[in-house]
């Protein structure tokens, strides 16, 4: 049996009251397989059985598992003679990180594929905060970095914040459209506009690059494995993206980048002749819960990858998890479709694929491990039929899981300390290269202390001048009190009114001795005062009586008083002239009370 005729078994069906195993030929798998069903219906078991057969048959494959259970299970099925063929990619293995740079060695005609794959992934992760401006700036940033040697995703934020680094990258751009953006548009952004446009991108990218788990993987310019080489040599790539240990956003980003890179590696096979292409082996890509990683690359894989012997097998739970573009590509290009029990909405959609043989009600009522499928047989799709999934393949008596992990670490991983130092030196080295005037790393802490006297010298004088000013302010008039103005002398027609007050003031008792001496004790209370004689009291009463009994007509107000400043507040200190004006306004009832003393 040739390699194209080799069958991978995954189900059994009734034939004349007898259970018969069946599967799919290798040549028919090039039209891809699509599996859908609720949790626990048998999807993962079907994928496990197919992947185990590929491993035992010596095929090359990549299995991307967002749960981690299947990825660890497959390690137990690897035979001893294939231990060195396995790349076990587990991002949570922080002590032995594997380097993976999606931006490494991307040809001119493939750059748009990398950018579109990354952009669709970012857009899905940040769907609520995505905007057209973010997409425009970020896409031009990625296109610029793809032309810069040794660039990684860590350079995105640096491109937006470091002018020297940006100038160096822009000088290396050959694409006229991208270069025009950075020279004619971004360089002319005002500081305010740039401060509004770029932080949103920096915050989002920073969520990944600030995580040591992700930074140690994507921050190294040279990947530790060549996917094209692994595909041609029939190697095994097992990717454990357990969301509980990696994080959902991190798992989605890494999975999408891996799928994009695998697709680019398959596309690179277009450089070989047709004769050589026939000798290249098939490579099988399994993606469980593929909606988490589905981007534009999926649509391209379904329509183009078949030509380059990249065969896709994908599974998920319900249709609404797919975007419109991916959904159209799936139902338009998939050769084999397998359906386990689904919900009512999905059953109505899938009924169109399986009618008139099976209805939506039939699909909803499927039991565990029961399935309806349309199988590609020798390039022709079969009529829908029912089947039952095979039970899990028994594990071999001897497993080489520990040896596999050690071998994978030795071939593709590095010690964490070495990787972190490499990433740190790469960042610091680039900064030192761009700014040679800065001192070396050991002397960097002393640089800020040398600048402190020069920066604080002017600030030491400013407070001294301001403090002196504040010390002089109490001698000035209060802010809420208008400045004093010397009133003009009263006109002759007003002298009568002021004379009566002056006479009253002159007839007052003389000031006691304690008022003339500032150091004298406080005066006694009013009822104990002895400085006023009965004669002076009688004279005072007579003067007050004459003022009360006489009612002179008020003199007309001169024009000068209209320009007089407003009266000071009640809590403001009274001046001598204000006391005179207030004495003139004393009501008669107060004066009568004084006369009754």
Brief description of this entry?
The chain has 597 residues and is of the alpha/beta class. It has helices at residues 26-29, 43-56, 69-75, 111-125, 132-146, 155-161, 163-171, 176-185, 191-209, 212-218, 227-232, 243-246, 248-267, 274-279, 296-304, 324-333, 344-354, 360-364, 401-412, 416-434, 446-472, 495-506, 513-516, 534-549, 576-584, 588-595; strands spanning 7-14, 19-25, 33-36, 60-65, 86-89, 236-240, 283-288, 310-316, 336-339, 370-374, 376-377, 380-381, 385-389.
> What count of helical segments does DSSP give?
26
By CATH reckoning, the class of the domain at 3-100 and 223-422 would read Alpha Beta
- Class per helix and strand makeup: alpha/beta
Tell me the Rg in angstroms.
46 Å
* Average pLDDT rating: 79
User: Helical amount among residues, as a percent range?
Assistant: 40-55%
- Binned strand content: 5-15%
Mind describing the biggest β-sheet?
Answer: 11 strands, mixed
Which consecutive residue ranges, at least 5 long each, have pLDDT under 50? 429-463, 465-478, 493-509, 525-530, 572-584
Shape descriptor: elongated
- Provide the spatial order of strands within the biggest beta sheet: 2-1-13-10-9-3-8-7-4-6-5
Distance between the termini: 137 Å
CATH H-level superfamily title of the domain at 3-100 and 223-422: P-loop containing nucleotide triphosphate hydrolases
The CATH topology of the domain at 3-100 and 223-422 turns out to be Rossmann fold
CATH architecture of the domain at 3-100 and 223-422: 3-Layer(aba) Sandwich
What's the total count of β strands? Answer: 13
